[in-house]
Amino acid sequence: MHEWALAEGIIEALARRAKEAGVNKFGMLKIILGELQQVDREILKYALDELLKLAKDSLGIIVDNIVFEEESVVLQCSRCGYRWRPVLDILDESVKESIHFIPEVIHVYISCPQCGSHDFSIIGGRGIAIEIS
Amino acid sequence: MISMTVDPRIFLASNRLSIFKYVVPVLSPKGGVGKSTIATALSLVLTDDFETVSLLDLDINNPTTHIILGIDTGSLKIEEDKGILPIKLFGSRLEFMSIALFTGDKLVPLRGRDISNAILEILAITRWSGKVLIVDTPPGFSDEVMDLMRIQSNIKPLIVSTTDKLSLHSASRLIELLSSEGIDILGIVGNMCKDDDTSILETYLQGVDIIACIPKIDGFDKLYGCIDTIYELFKQHLMKVVEVLRTR
Q1: A93 and A116 both lie in a single domain
Q2: Sorting pLDDT into bands at 50, 70 and 90, what band is B125?
Q3: What residue numbers bound the domain in which B174 lies?
Q4: B210 within a domain of the structure (yes/no)
Q5: Keywords for this entry (chain A) (predicted)?
Q6: Fewer C-beta neighbours within 10 Å, C or N terminus of chain A?
């Protein structure tokens, strides 16, 4: 599962932050999930819980609270400036899967609804980011 | 503690690449010198010395290595296991990853920031198993190469050049840049060479070893997909690259 790889990355980020800051206990881990990558929140949560148990045993890392926040995907055409929210549900399953793995490949499959250009930016809701506090 | 926003993929990508003893980007600022051919052939030849060799096509806009390998991207199903698994080829001795596996073999129109994000994603989620990673790169020295170097600083680039003056000039510039950053250049492979071309390469590209001088192979595109033949054709030329790599 791709979500396991993302969870591994989150744990690695926590471990490095713990080392840098010299602390093992974190009050909150906020996980921002961009709509475009279509990460399965439940699988990610399960993977995180499992990996956090291991991180607690091996590194003493403790996270008091995990919060998920979802961010809508917004695209903006670099040619005509049009800004829009794409409807992902209408895409083929195989295309959605490809976007799940590498969100940038959306440039191959859709274009600006106003001018037809493939030259657009993902200005929000791309993938995963975390805030540690 | 101060709250901070982190991109977890950077750490994951760094971990994924840390399994490799050697990371060899195949570079040339000039297009059309045969980087993809050399990268593919080298990865095949390296299977003589390494149990598993990993090959990554990092040309994000216009990947072509899969065509040389004869991979039909439409018929493949990407396997997942806590990440994505590279495609196994050549009796499972070669493992391969490319954005082409996700794009239906179409051109990928991306700008710099999106290219960097795509590279980071590929490096973060691909679960390699080899000890040596050969990286095919696009012409130039831009996001693809610089992002790779940002995540994995310990690289040993192999430079490809023909004896065309523009190619030699471009390779010379690249050597100057890499040397100024203290990067350990593995050497130079001359491609599409004639008999006396080694001396031309030595004259123009001083300070870096000319490891091989490969002749032009007419009709090479007819061999795309015939990886056993490609391996046999290039083995005699690229064995020296393997020997040099072993000394580093």
Answers
A1: yes
A2: very high
A3: 8-241
A4: yes
A5: Metal-binding, Nickel, Zinc
A6: C
The domain tally of chain B equals: 1
* pLDDT at residue B8 in the model: 85
Chain A residue with the nearest C-alpha to that of B101: A98
C-beta atoms of B15 and A4 within 8 A: no
- Say yes or no to pLDDT of B102 above 60: yes
Contact B24, B12 (CB under 8 A): no
Query: Which of B77, B102, B126 is the best residue to mutate to test the A interface, defined by the most A CB atoms within 10 Å of its own CB?
Result: B102
Smallest CA–CA separation between A30 and chain B, in Å?
Answer: 9
Nearest to A128 among B8, B78, B103 (CB): B8
The residue-averaged pLDDT of B171-182 equals 95
Q: Are B245 and B156 in contact (CB under 8 A)?
A: yes
Question: Which residue in chain A is spatially nearest to B3 when comparing CA positions?
Answer: A133
Domain match, A17 and A54 both: yes
Same domain, A6 and A62: yes
pTM: 0.93
- Does residue B3 carry a pLDDT above 70? no
Average pLDDT over residues B180-185: 94
Provide CB contacts within 8 A for A73, sequence distance 6+.
Answer: A34, A35, A36, A85, A86, A88, A122, A124, A125, A126
The C-alpha of A39 sits at a distance from chain B's nearest C-alpha, in angstroms, of 13
Whether B202 maps to a domain, the answer reads yes
* pLDDT above 90 (res B129): yes
CB-based contact A2 B118, cutoff 8 Å: no
- The residue count for chain A: 133
Domain that holds residue A67: 2-72+128-132
Identify the CA nearest to B96 among candidates B147, B139, B145, B43.
Answer: B43
Total count of domains within chain A: 2
**Helices A2-21/B112-125 angle, 10° precision:** 100
pLDDT of A65-75, one tens digit each? 999 999 999 99
